[in-house]
Amino acid sequence: MKRTREETLRHLEIADYLIRKICEGHYTVNQKIPSENDLCSQFNVNRNTVRQAVGRLTNLGWITPVHGKGCFVNQIPDPIVYVLSSKTRFSENMKKQGLEHSSQLIHWDKGRPDKEEQRNLGLNETDLVYRLEILRSIDQKPISITTTVMPEQDVPLFERHLNQFQSLYQILIEHYQLQPIRSKSFFQASLPSLKDAEILELPENVPILTIESVMNHPSGLPLEYSIARVRGDMHKCLVEF
User: Fold this and answer.
1) Which PROSITE patterns match (predicted)?
2) 3-state DSSP call for residue 132?
3) Which fold has domain 80-239?
4) Domain 5-73 class, CATH top level
5) How many helices (H) and strands (E) does the chain have?
6) Cα separations (Å) of 205 from 2, 6, 81?
7) Distance between CA atoms of residues 215 and 156, nearest Å
8) What are the tens digits of pLDDT across the range 172-215?
Protein backbone atom coordinates (compact mmCIF):
# COMPACT_ATOMS: atom_id res chain seq x y z
CA MET A 1 0.00 0.00 0.00
CA LYS A 2 1.31 3.45 -0.95
CA ARG A 3 2.16 5.65 2.02
CA THR A 4 0.49 9.04 2.26
CA ARG A 5 2.49 12.24 2.63
CA GLU A 6 1.24 12.52 6.22
CA GLU A 7 2.63 9.06 7.03
CA THR A 8 5.90 9.85 5.31
CA LEU A 9 6.43 13.01 7.37
CA ARG A 10 5.29 11.53 10.70
CA HIS A 11 8.88 10.92 11.80
CA LEU A 12 9.52 14.68 11.51
CA GLU A 13 6.64 15.34 13.91
CA ILE A 14 8.11 12.89 16.43
CA ALA A 15 11.61 14.36 16.03
CA ASP A 16 10.31 17.91 16.53
CA TYR A 17 8.40 16.80 19.63
CA LEU A 18 11.53 15.27 21.18
CA ILE A 19 13.68 18.31 20.35
CA ARG A 20 11.07 20.58 21.92
CA LYS A 21 11.02 18.44 25.07
CA ILE A 22 14.82 18.60 25.28
CA CYS A 23 14.80 22.38 24.84
CA GLU A 24 12.14 22.72 27.53
CA GLY A 25 14.28 20.69 29.94
CA HIS A 26 11.89 17.74 30.07
CA TYR A 27 14.82 15.53 29.04
CA THR A 28 18.14 16.79 30.37
CA VAL A 29 21.76 16.11 29.40
CA ASN A 30 22.72 12.43 29.79
CA GLN A 31 19.09 11.48 30.41
CA LYS A 32 17.54 8.67 28.40
CA ILE A 33 14.68 9.54 26.04
CA PRO A 34 11.66 7.18 25.75
CA SER A 35 12.31 3.78 24.20
CA GLU A 36 11.25 2.85 20.68
CA ASN A 37 8.35 0.82 22.09
CA ASP A 38 7.14 3.74 24.19
CA LEU A 39 7.31 6.15 21.24
CA CYS A 40 5.51 3.67 18.97
CA SER A 41 2.68 3.45 21.52
CA GLN A 42 2.59 7.19 22.22
CA PHE A 43 2.36 8.20 18.55
CA ASN A 44 0.61 5.09 17.24
CA VAL A 45 3.26 4.48 14.56
CA ASN A 46 5.44 1.56 13.52
CA ARG A 47 9.03 1.00 14.64
CA ASN A 48 10.51 2.15 11.32
CA THR A 49 8.92 5.59 11.71
CA VAL A 50 10.34 5.93 15.22
CA ARG A 51 13.78 4.85 14.03
CA GLN A 52 13.67 7.54 11.36
CA ALA A 53 12.88 10.13 14.05
CA VAL A 54 15.64 8.86 16.33
CA GLY A 55 18.06 8.83 13.39
CA ARG A 56 17.23 12.46 12.67
CA LEU A 57 17.97 13.49 16.27
CA THR A 58 21.21 11.51 16.18
CA ASN A 59 22.36 13.16 12.94
CA LEU A 60 21.53 16.60 14.31
CA GLY A 61 23.58 15.90 17.42
CA TRP A 62 20.76 15.98 19.98
CA ILE A 63 21.17 12.40 21.19
CA THR A 64 23.66 9.54 21.21
CA PRO A 65 22.44 5.93 20.90
CA VAL A 66 24.12 3.41 23.23
CA HIS A 67 23.73 -0.19 22.11
CA GLY A 68 21.49 -2.15 24.41
CA LYS A 69 20.75 0.82 26.66
CA GLY A 70 18.86 3.40 24.62
CA CYS A 71 19.43 6.97 23.46
CA PHE A 72 20.81 9.69 25.71
CA VAL A 73 20.61 13.48 25.44
CA ASN A 74 23.79 15.31 24.44
CA GLN A 75 25.14 18.61 25.68
CA ILE A 76 24.32 21.02 22.85
CA PRO A 77 26.80 23.93 22.73
CA ASP A 78 25.58 27.42 21.93
CA PRO A 79 26.13 28.29 18.26
CA ILE A 80 29.27 30.30 17.52
CA VAL A 81 28.54 33.83 16.37
CA TYR A 82 30.45 34.63 13.21
CA VAL A 83 30.45 38.31 12.33
CA LEU A 84 30.43 39.30 8.67
CA SER A 85 31.48 42.87 7.96
CA SER A 86 33.54 44.69 5.35
CA LYS A 87 36.80 43.68 7.11
CA THR A 88 35.92 40.31 8.65
CA ARG A 89 38.83 38.19 9.89
CA PHE A 90 38.24 34.72 11.30
CA SER A 91 41.06 34.93 13.86
CA GLU A 92 39.93 38.33 15.19
CA ASN A 93 36.33 37.10 15.44
CA MET A 94 37.33 34.12 17.54
CA LYS A 95 39.78 36.06 19.74
CA LYS A 96 37.06 38.54 20.67
CA GLN A 97 34.87 35.63 21.83
CA GLY A 98 37.72 33.98 23.73
CA LEU A 99 37.56 30.83 21.60
CA GLU A 100 40.46 28.54 20.77
CA HIS A 101 40.77 28.50 17.00
CA SER A 102 43.02 27.33 14.19
CA SER A 103 43.30 27.41 10.41
CA GLN A 104 44.81 24.57 8.41
CA LEU A 105 45.77 24.67 4.75
CA ILE A 106 44.66 21.28 3.43
CA HIS A 107 45.42 21.91 -0.26
CA TRP A 108 46.64 24.57 -2.68
CA ASP A 109 47.36 24.84 -6.37
CA LYS A 110 48.19 27.42 -9.01
CA GLY A 111 46.44 27.36 -12.37
CA ARG A 112 43.98 28.90 -14.79
CA PRO A 113 40.74 30.35 -13.41
CA ASP A 114 37.44 28.72 -14.28
CA LYS A 115 34.56 30.76 -15.71
CA GLU A 116 33.09 31.68 -12.30
CA GLU A 117 36.49 32.74 -10.98
CA GLN A 118 37.11 34.82 -14.11
CA ARG A 119 33.76 36.57 -13.72
CA ASN A 120 34.14 37.36 -10.01
CA LEU A 121 37.80 38.43 -10.18
CA GLY A 122 37.69 40.22 -13.53
CA LEU A 123 40.27 37.89 -15.08
CA ASN A 124 41.00 36.46 -18.49
CA GLU A 125 41.21 32.73 -19.14
CA THR A 126 44.99 33.02 -19.62
CA ASP A 127 45.58 34.61 -16.19
CA LEU A 128 46.81 32.55 -13.25
CA VAL A 129 45.28 32.20 -9.79
CA TYR A 130 46.22 30.67 -6.47
CA ARG A 131 43.48 28.39 -5.13
CA LEU A 132 43.52 27.39 -1.44
CA GLU A 133 41.40 24.97 0.61
CA ILE A 134 41.39 26.11 4.24
CA LEU A 135 39.90 24.15 7.14
CA ARG A 136 38.98 26.27 10.17
CA SER A 137 38.35 24.78 13.60
CA ILE A 138 37.09 26.06 16.93
CA ASP A 139 37.98 24.27 20.17
CA GLN A 140 39.60 21.60 17.96
CA LYS A 141 36.29 20.90 16.20
CA PRO A 142 36.07 21.59 12.43
CA ILE A 143 33.54 24.31 11.62
CA SER A 144 34.17 25.34 8.00
CA ILE A 145 36.01 24.66 4.77
CA THR A 146 36.75 27.61 2.50
CA THR A 147 37.95 27.62 -1.09
CA THR A 148 39.80 30.91 -1.62
CA VAL A 149 40.96 32.12 -5.03
CA MET A 150 43.30 35.08 -5.61
CA PRO A 151 44.94 36.43 -8.79
CA GLU A 152 48.61 35.48 -9.07
CA GLN A 153 49.44 39.04 -10.12
CA ASP A 154 48.27 40.32 -6.69
CA VAL A 155 50.15 37.74 -4.59
CA PRO A 156 53.25 36.71 -6.59
CA LEU A 157 55.26 33.79 -5.20
CA PHE A 158 52.52 33.13 -2.68
CA GLU A 159 53.69 29.55 -2.18
CA ARG A 160 56.77 30.84 -0.34
CA HIS A 161 54.54 31.74 2.62
CA LEU A 162 52.49 28.53 2.88
CA ASN A 163 54.91 26.17 4.67
CA GLN A 164 53.83 27.20 8.17
CA PHE A 165 50.35 28.45 7.33
CA GLN A 166 48.32 29.84 10.24
CA SER A 167 46.25 32.70 8.84
CA LEU A 168 45.50 33.78 5.27
CA TYR A 169 45.03 37.43 6.14
CA GLN A 170 48.16 37.48 8.27
CA ILE A 171 50.12 36.49 5.15
CA LEU A 172 48.34 39.11 3.04
CA ILE A 173 48.98 41.88 5.55
CA GLU A 174 52.57 41.01 6.49
CA HIS A 175 53.94 40.11 3.06
CA TYR A 176 51.76 42.02 0.59
CA GLN A 177 50.38 44.91 2.67
CA LEU A 178 46.89 43.85 1.58
CA GLN A 179 43.75 43.88 3.71
CA PRO A 180 40.77 42.71 1.63
CA ILE A 181 37.45 44.53 2.02
CA ARG A 182 34.25 42.51 1.63
CA SER A 183 32.09 43.83 -1.20
CA LYS A 184 29.35 41.18 -1.28
CA SER A 185 28.34 37.78 0.08
CA PHE A 186 25.67 35.32 -0.98
CA PHE A 187 24.17 32.84 1.51
CA GLN A 188 22.59 29.50 0.63
CA ALA A 189 21.61 26.45 2.65
CA SER A 190 22.68 23.20 1.01
CA LEU A 191 23.79 19.67 1.77
CA PRO A 192 27.52 19.01 2.01
CA SER A 193 29.44 16.97 -0.51
CA LEU A 194 30.63 13.62 0.78
CA LYS A 195 34.19 14.97 0.98
CA ASP A 196 33.15 18.08 2.93
CA ALA A 197 30.93 16.03 5.25
CA GLU A 198 33.86 13.76 6.08
CA ILE A 199 36.24 16.66 6.78
CA LEU A 200 33.65 18.53 8.85
CA GLU A 201 32.71 15.32 10.72
CA LEU A 202 29.10 15.92 9.74
CA PRO A 203 26.42 13.50 8.44
CA GLU A 204 25.89 14.19 4.74
CA ASN A 205 22.15 14.76 5.27
CA VAL A 206 22.68 17.66 7.72
CA PRO A 207 22.61 21.08 5.99
CA ILE A 208 25.53 23.46 5.78
CA LEU A 209 25.57 27.19 5.07
CA THR A 210 27.41 28.13 1.88
CA ILE A 211 28.78 31.69 1.86
CA GLU A 212 30.07 32.91 -1.51
CA SER A 213 32.01 36.18 -1.16
CA VAL A 214 34.05 38.69 -3.14
CA MET A 215 36.69 40.79 -1.37
CA ASN A 216 38.19 43.91 -2.95
CA HIS A 217 41.25 46.09 -2.84
CA PRO A 218 40.61 49.50 -1.22
CA SER A 219 40.53 50.79 -4.80
CA GLY A 220 37.50 48.60 -5.49
CA LEU A 221 39.18 46.05 -7.75
CA PRO A 222 38.46 42.39 -6.83
CA LEU A 223 41.20 40.64 -4.86
CA GLU A 224 39.68 37.45 -3.43
CA TYR A 225 36.81 35.14 -4.36
CA SER A 226 35.83 32.57 -1.75
CA ILE A 227 33.25 29.87 -1.13
CA ALA A 228 32.91 28.87 2.53
CA ARG A 229 30.97 25.78 3.61
CA VAL A 230 30.03 26.21 7.26
CA ARG A 231 28.43 23.73 9.67
CA GLY A 232 24.91 25.03 10.18
CA ASP A 233 24.56 23.30 13.54
CA MET A 234 27.48 25.19 15.08
CA HIS A 235 27.16 28.59 13.48
CA LYS A 236 25.11 31.76 13.80
CA CYS A 237 25.93 34.50 11.31
CA LEU A 238 25.78 38.18 12.28
CA VAL A 239 25.95 40.69 9.42
CA GLU A 240 27.16 44.13 10.49
CA PHE A 241 26.50 47.25 8.41
Assistant:
1) HTH_GNTR
2) strand
3) Chorismate lyase (3.40.1410)
4) mainly alpha
5) 8, 10
6) 25, 21, 23
7) 18
8) 999 999 999 999 999 999 999 999 999 998 877 788 999 999 99
